[in-house]
Every structure is written in structure tokens, then in C-alpha cells.
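To whoever is covering the structure queue this week,

Two jobs came back overnight. Logging them here so there's a record in the thread.

Job A:
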Amino acid sequence: MHSSSATSVSELSNTNMLEGIFSIWCKKLGLNRNSVVPAAISALRFCLEQLAVLPFRQSLATAFWIGLGMSGDMSVSTWQNLRRLEELSGIPAKLIVAVERRVARAMRLRKRIKQDLEEGWAECNV
């Protein structure tokens, strides 16, 4: 486990390693990696940039769970898969869900702010 954000951000630069971890988890859960991994990588970037206080392993598990939810297939975001993710990651399921709610809310807020800024800029007459 890594606790410093500098270490976590430098690890993020090795996207192939992270994709490999997420791909292994997908394989062990019997999931399509192409529908989960891109969203999980995006969520992990957000976790490491905006919530640097989280341990790296917690960010990894939460990002994967968010990736499952964003995959478009609601049948993969099941309690059974959450329990299996808990076993794979070593992070308690309750903690994954609690942090996921916080991250999802922050990601929605960031998206809304970005949209508001773009709309405001489009209305500018300069």
C-alpha cells in the first residue's frame, strides 16, 4: 500500500501496469475487460488527483467498482461481484461502497462545473 500522493501519481503514469491489474480482476470475475477497464482507469485518475489522501489500494478497488458501474451492463454491479472484489483487493466491501459514493458525487460535480464553465464561455461576447 502506498500512502503518499506523489508515489500514487507516479504509479498512475504506468497505465499498462494498471490496465493489467484491472484486466486480471476482470478475468477473475468473468467480465469483459473492454467495458470496464477504460472507465476504471478514468476513475482511478480522478481518485489519485482529487482524493490523494486515500491509500493507493483503496483507490484501485474503488475505481474498479466505479468502472463496473459505468460499464453499461448493470448486471455486473452486483453484491456478489463486490464481495469478490473485496477478496481480490483486500479492501472491505463497505469501504469500497462508501468511497465510491463520495468519488461518484465528486465526479458528477466536476462534470457539472465543467459544463457550466463551457456554457458561460459560449455566452461571452468577447
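Job B:
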Amino acid sequence: MYSTFVRLAEYATSKHLDLRQASVALYPPIPLYRRLLRAHRRLPIEMRSLGDDYVKAEFRRHRETTNPVHIMGFLTQWKMYLDELPRDPSDSRSFKKLDPTVYEKMSAEQLGQLYEFMHATKELWKPVPVNGEQVQSETKK
């Protein structure tokens, strides 16, 4: 099974590509796995632990997959995810907005969950004022 992954990934990456197509090239499973975990190092600790756990679980679940179409789809989707990860997560401009066609394909339940998720993340990532800042602003009044 491992050799199947390697052969498929090597075939996909052995072609000479120009720079525009270079990001489309697939990595073999183990280097892709390592790159994903390394990319998560740049994320905040909560996001990193969630992402690492998810990546590890997904790669474990698909370890025994032998269908070449599923393998290529799996590797392609994870490569796309890797390409979407922001280089600098502190820069809010680096996060990409959802494609409007994705909204059209969502069910009412999924849209509700997305709405709830949006509000939960806004609450989670609010800047926490330092006690000293609160005291200073109160004393100035």
C-alpha cells in the first residue's frame, strides 16, 4: 500500500512544470504530512493542536487506502489545504474568504453551523485588555 502512494505521488511530481504549475504538484504522502505539521507551527497554539490532531487522524484513516483515485484525491486536497495556509497568521489579510459558489451548495443546516462558527470565533479572538491598560484609562477620566 505504501509503495502505491509513493508511485502515484512520484508520477505526479516527476513532470517538469513551470512556476505556475509548481503549486499544483503533489508531494508523496510522508513529505506532505511533514510539511502540513511544519506549516501548523506558525498557527496559534489552539489552532495548531486542533490542526495537528486532525491531520494525524486523517492520514491514519487513509493509511490502508488502495484505490488510486481516492489516494490522488486525498493528496490533492491536502496539498490545496497546505497552499491555503497563511504564511503569517497574524496578518488578517492572509486568510481567504469562502467562494460564493460554496455557499450555494450548502444546506440550511450547514449555513446555520457556519453562522454559529463565525460568531464563536469572533468571541474567541477578541483582544483581551491587559489590567494595566484598564487602570490607566480609568485614572485618566
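Note for Job B: The mean pLDDT is 76.

Please reply-all if you pick these up so we don't duplicate work.
Q.
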